[in-house]
From TrEMBL:
Quaternary structure note: Homodimer.
Primary localisation category: cytoplasm
Tree of life domain: Bacteria
InterPro entries in the cross-refs: Alpha/beta_knot_MTases, tRNA_m1G_MeTrfase_C_sf, tRNA_m1G_MeTrfase_TrmD, tRNA_m1G_MTases_N, tRNA_MeTrfase_TRMD/TRM10
Keyword hit for Methyltransferase: yes
Protein name: tRNA (guanine-N(1)-)-methyltransferase
Gene Ontology BP term (one): methylation
Main function: Specifically methylates guanosine-37 in various tRNAs.
Organism, scientific name: Uliginosibacterium paludis
tRNA methyltransferase TRMD/TRM10-type domain segment(s): 10-231
Length: 259
């Protein structure tokens, strides 16, 4: 089992598009986990914290240039309101300039009972607000999307999967890619024979020890082919070394047969 503290995870999301979060709240595993009371969502729309007639949340950038910048004050009030309800929260700004989100970061964030997630829009957020309230910036990759909502949902979904009771079969999270430092092994389902492409015989054998060994061999082999960097820092056990060598020999043999 993956260690994560008990209790409900609380997410306070600062967003001008709260409706987008229905995608997470109303579908699949995250929906079921919410129904089981494992996490709760509280959206705070900065527009509700404006004081002008037009309910402005953005303005032109000082120094000129393209686009608009999110105003500090409505965001500051929205974050203040969220923190009054959840004072111990860590404030995360979803940003392409942040630390890359990976499995390790998700496990660390899953240990926080509550998070305030600040979703930027336009060219971003007035730097003074970021300097004032943000504990950490998190990026979902070296690319730019239009707003922080999708990155926030990506991060929330990854956290929710780790909460005890979120998955029907808790073991499936343990066997996912990256959890043990390896990529996942290949999966098969019916039919056994699909136009001549057969399910590996060992998976039909009912021999659990052989299946475990085959899966570990595949996970090691697939990782060495697709993500050798993951293996570079890993001290392989005697069994793992043997299985990886077997995988390589079998791959060489298969290539030789094809030629
Ligand atoms: N001008 C900004 C820059 O180049 O760094 C990009 C602004 S982006 C169009 C608008 C918002 O989307 C950002 O404030 C951030 O909240 C979110 N965002 C965009 N790309 C992201 C990424 N890779 N990871 C996390 N959030 C991202």
């Amino acid at each position: 089992m993956i260690e994560a503290p008990e209790g409900c995870r609380r997410f306070d999301v600062i967003t001008i598009f709260p409706e987008m979060f229905a995608a997470l709240r109303d579908f699949g595993i995250s929906r079921r986990a919410a129904e089981r009371g494992l996490w709760s969502l509280h959206c705070w729309n900065p527009r509700d914290f404006t004081e002008d007639l037009h309910r402005s949340v953005d303005d032109r950038p000082y120094g000129g240039g393209p686009g608009m910048v999110m105003l500090a004050d409505p965001l500051s009030r929205a974050i203040g309101a969220a923190r009054r309800e959840s004072p111990a929260s860590r404030v995360i700004y979803l940003s392409p300039q942040g630390r890359a989100l990976d499995h390790e970061a998700v496990v660390r964030l899953a240990a926080c009972p509550s998070l305030v997630l600040l979703c930027g829009r336009y060219e971003g957020v007035d730097q003074r607000l970021l300097d004032e309230v943000v504990d950490e910036e998190v990026s979902v990759g070296d690319l730019v999307v239009s707003g922080g909502e999708l990155p926030a949902m990506l991060m929330m979904d990854a956290i929710i999967r780790l909460l005890p009771g979120a998955l029907n079969d808790a073991d499936s999270a343990v066997e996912d890619s990256f959890v043990d430092g390896l990529l996942d092994y290949p999966h098969y389902t019916r039919p056994e024979d699909r136009a001549g492409a057969k399910v590996p015989a060992v998976l039909l054998s009912g021999n659990h020890a052989a299946i475990r060994r085959w899966r570990l061999k595949q996970a090691l082999g697939v990782t060495s082919l697709k993500r050798p960097d993951l293996l570079a820092g890993r001290v392989l056990s005697k069994e793992e070394k043997l299985l990886l060598e077997e995988f390589r020999q079998e791959s060489r043999l298969a290539t030789f047969r094809e030629e």
